[in-house]
Amino acid sequence: MNERKPSFLYSLKAVLWSFVGLRRKSDFEQDPGKLNPIHVIVAGLLGVAVFIGILIVIVKIVVSP
After folding, report:
1. Rg for the chain (alpha carbons), in Å?
2. Does residue 51 contact residue 16 with C-beta atoms inside 8 Å?
């Protein structure tokens, strides 16, 4: 059996779609074999950092005089 190594890009895509809440059931079923836990943690932290950064920029734009 020729299994591919889990890629960071696949994990990033899975985490970002999960943030939005739009994932297909077939993607969830494939995840256990394709996701690397370390990649998921790093992608999650990156996603949270970007989300917080966007919120800070929006607040600064709205509050600016």
Report:
1. 16
2. no
